[in-house]
Design brief:
With about 110 residues, the protein is mostly helical. It has 6 helices and no strands.
């Protein structure tokens, strides 16, 4: 390893960086896979802290369906939470959750 570092510093540094990035993304992939395959995270009860993307992932819905159901425009900045959306529209989080549940039922019924 010393000889590689001495003779090819740039290539060795690039290789070590590639190994570090590969390790980082592999760990992230495995952690995400474990998280979303836990049954506790499937069809999770919608809470005010959740974002539409989280709900779409948990309920296994295309993001377009969630956005259409909630009449969302493409976000500028951080995504809004269900609590923020409910306060902005003057409804409860439960009302938004009911809309998502109906959209999920319709989507699942349409798919064989």
């Amino acid at each position: 390893m010393r000889r590689l570092w001495r003779d090819h510093r740039l290539l060795t540094a690039a290789f070590l960086l590639a190994v570090a990035l590969t390790t980082f993304f592999a760990v992230r992939l495995v952690a995400s896979w474990i998280y979303w395959n836990d049954p506790a995270h499937r069809d999770a009860e919608i809470a005010p802290w959740m974002t539409p993307r989280y709900v779409a992932h948990s309920w296994r819905l295309p993001p377009e369906i969630v956005a259409e159901t909630l009449d969302l425009d493409p976000p500028v900045g951080p995504p809004p939470t269900f609590g923020e959306l409910a306060a902005e529209r003057g409804v409860t989080v439960e009302d938004l959750a009911t809309r998502i549940e109906k959209a999920a039922e319709a989507h699942r019924a349409a798919r064989p």
